Amino acid sequence: MERENGSAGSAPAVLSVRGIAHRFRKNRVLTGVTFDGGQGKCIGVIGLNACGKSTLLSILAGIRKPDEGEFVCFGHRMFREKGWFPRLISYVPQENPLIGELSVRDNVRLWTGGTDRDESILDRMQIAELMEKRTADLSEGTRRRLAIACAMAGRRPVLIMDEPASSLDLHQKDVIHRCMREYLRQEGTILLATHDEEEIRSCDALYYIDGGRASETKAEEAIRRLREGR
Amino acid sequence: MNNPRIKLFFELEIKKGLALLPSFLLMLSVTVGILAIASAIFCAAMGKDHVLPHLSVAIVSPDQDEMTQTAADLIRDMESVRSIATLDFMDREKAEKQFGSGSVQAIIYLPENLYDSIDSGENLPVTVKISKESGLASTLFRELAESGASLIQTSEASIYALAQVSLTYPLTGSAQDLMNKMAVSYISTIMNRGSVWNETMLSAYGTVTPAMYYALSVMLLTVLLFGTAFAVFYSGGEESAGRLLRRDGVGGVAQSAAKITAMTIVLWILLTAWYFALFLAGFTGFRPAAALLLLFAAFSVSSFVHLIYCFARGESAVFFYAVISIVLFFLSGGIVPKTVFPAWLARIGSALPTGVLEQYLSVLLYGGSFGAAGGRGVFMPASVILYGAAMAAAGTWRWENARL
Lengths: 230, 404
What we know:
The complex is a heterodimer of chains A (230) and B (404). Chain A has 230 residues and is of the alpha/beta class. Chain A has one domain (12-228): Rossmann fold (3-Layer(aba) Sandwich). The relative contact order of chain A is 0.21. The longest helix of chain A has 16 residues, at 170-185. The two termini of chain A are 25 Å apart. In chain A, strands 6-7-8-3-9-10 form a 6-stranded mixed sheet, with helices on both faces. The radius of gyration of chain A is 17 Å and the shape is globular. Helices cover 31% and strands 27% of the residues of chain A. Chain B has 404 residues and is mostly helical. Chain A binds chain B through residues 58, 61-64, 82, 85-86, 91, 93, 95-102, 106, 109-110, 113-114, and chain B through 4-5, 8-9, 12, 15-16, 19-20, 232, 235-241, 243-244, 247-249, 404.
């Protein structure tokens, strides 16, 4: 994404995550996860597979309930005011939330319905010419672009993405990264989980999750730890 | 429905369901075509329109008196005898030669003065020789011969009783004449079993013909199998979408309701088309009210589909659904009538959702009363709806509370 890595604290915090804890049955997955995120910043959540990144993102997207913790977004205590989740946060989970039997147009309608839709994102994501196609007939990469386009078209101020560029070719990655940069330029805030080196280097702030805890780190350190598998 | 997203979701689910119809109907047509070709080849290979081999039976009668001949002709012309055997009078030598060569599978040896011996009450025994190599046909023939003998004994008992009465209370004419007349009358009436049974035929299929019964079975099987096509409503992407939609205000109940509504509409179209096809084939009359009531059946099947797919997630869900459907279909008497089941199994079959549905469809399509069909009266349609509602509720609970 070719952005300078910097501190999320340099911009006013629009995301404040405090002490998030979660467990699956008896296994503690997250323990006291705490960080902040500023407007127009890209925050990376890094860690080995199954370290709890996706769990954390799904909690912050309002899909899953935490056992403990607080999440404040634009001044709203999100776990108490759940109605704000769909208004403030777009979410692209690891598994595309697209309905395969519907056309691209119908999926766009479903995921952006009732909101002020940004049609230009469909062009920038090279989706506009595919509107009448059945979604299940699209390639994996195109479906990924569509899912991200649907999330961005809703014009919400926070975008949470779980490994957005996994399994994409370089051209499709470039398309997605261009759109992410544009989103950040428009003062949107991105929170993403990733293993992609380019994405890690372009994040403004990085948090490495290990043993259920998140600690702030730098890009090179995060990449080294990922390579070493620790 | 204040949330426009809910309305949109309903609209899209229905659109999605209707989009499945053409491909499923194509798949069904291909399947039926393949089955028809396979059946035709099988029948051609068998080269006959019945399962049992025809049995040749020789009748050896030492005295060719008229009454014996008449009685033998009566037996030979009985429908139940003709369907499995051809009876021919032969001399003893020829009959035994053919029995030895296998071209005759049974010999009936009539004793001399058979008719007189019956008249006098002496009742000389008839000897029947049956080949052991003719399998099921000879077993059937043996049972038929025993039944016939039993029938004749009953007739004789009646005739002798009447003769005794005529001796005690003198009638005009000789007792022998009376007995002869009664014997001829009695035998010609009672032995004509085919026509008597045709009028009061009891069938394992109940009040419908086998063709009507299997037409209904195929109809039920078709809608159950359509459930495999509905797996797309519950794929991984759908689950992921479902979770996000729940966050966006389209709750699990609304999502389940939309899915069940979409499936119900599609299945209702399918059931109504089947009903119309049965009408065109002359199996039934077409009543718009019955077509409308098929909605309950469609709802019940949709709820069943919803329940199964909400519990059986992942790659094996379709397989699981198909297995459960086929087992229920069999237990509900879809493959063979429940009347051939042991009583306890038939009771279970009738109580299953598919069993209730089968009875409901039978009454709707072929007429009759709900009470007569399942002994439940007006509770049968209510059972169809309640089963549907219970399955829908259980599936919805699961969809709402599925672990991430």
